[in-house]
Amino acid sequence: LTNGANQTVVTEFLLLGLHDHHNLQMVLFVLCLGIYSVNVLGNALLIGLNMLDPRLHTPMYFFLSNLALMDICGTSSFVPLMLVNFLETQSTISFPGCALQMYLTLALGSTECVLLAMMACDRYMAICQPLRYSELMNRQTCTGMVALSWGAGFANSLLHSILTWSLPFCGHNIINHFFCEILAVLKLACGDISLNALILTVSSAVVTLPPLLLIFLSYVFILTAILRVPSAAGRHKAFSTCSAHLTVVVIYYGTISFMYFKPKAKDLYLDKLLALFYGVVTPSLNPIIYSMRNAEVKAATVALLRGDLSKQMACFPAVL
């Protein structure tokens, strides 16, 4: 469309992806479809187990259910359309669709940063304050911590969405990415984006660094408490309750750090593939990690397969 000043108004965007590498796109389609299926089924299974098994009605699994829901929503905000685009000769997305996709991906990524910090606090309370754990981590406290995580992430994304879509977009509509990633979108704006870049840098630091510091301090206290446990069996049992969360944190922040602190690539193919790994592969690892490293999840899965969960639900009251 054209406005009165003879400028083209953007009504849709073209997602470039890897369209000049058709064979690679076919490989990525198969891989991403398989990984996305594992992600949705695995995280849905975790949510289902947490709802059905009374032994999992605890604060730790309440947080884990929210993490699983976050991973399903985060990948579903862009993977299905990306899979369709892998099969198309030209991948387009409408202006409102791009705005919604950018909002959701940014919101859910920010929310996960905060939620991982809340989960670290929960592990700190469980190991360092075991006698007061039930009192401190009650239903109201856990609900408030989860609401803070979701609220902070979505408020952060709303701020960036308002600032981004207030900019003029007049002609250039080729996004050099698989989806509407905020940096790729900002490059298409006609106006000055210095304010957007500044606020994006500040908010990224606020959303990632304080949670990371909180996670670090929590585990310093946790490890100190674990080392005070006299028996090796006691130390192993205490550490096993937080090893899955620690593994998820290392993978999540490790991927982010590598993406943003590595030397700038000469072409964008590596950056796009790394973003794909971060957005598709990392969320699918969470249910695998929690299943492999958690005896309670294994037991709940076995009980589900045997059909014992319905009997257990009748015998145990819900705690959270």
TrEMBL record:
Residues covered by the G-protein coupled receptors family 1 profile domain: 42-290
Name one matching Pfam family. Answer: 7tm_4
The record's listing under InterPro entries reads: GPCR_Rhodpsn, GPCR_Rhodpsn_7TM, Olfact_rcpt
Transmembrane portions of the chain: 26-49, 61-83, 103-121, 142-162, 197-226, 238-261, 273-292
Q: Would you say which domain of life the source belongs to?
A: Eukaryota
GO cellular component terms attached to this protein's record: nucleoplasm; plasma membrane
Q: How does it sit in the membrane?
A: Multi-pass membrane protein
**Chief localisation class:** membrane
Spell out the subcellular localization from the entry. Answer: Cell membrane
Task: Give the molecular function GO annotations.
Answer: G protein-coupled receptor activity; olfactory receptor activity
Keywords, in A-Z order? Cell membrane, G-protein coupled receptor, Membrane, Olfaction, Receptor, Sensory transduction, Transducer, Transmembrane, Transmembrane helix
Q: Which PANTHER family match?
A: OLFACTORY RECEPTOR
Summarizing the function annotation, the protein's role is: Odorant receptor.
Q: Which family is this sequence assigned to?
A: Belongs to the G-protein coupled receptor 1 family.
The entry's protein name is: Olfactory receptor
Q: Which organism is it from?
A: Bos mutus grunniens (Wild yak)
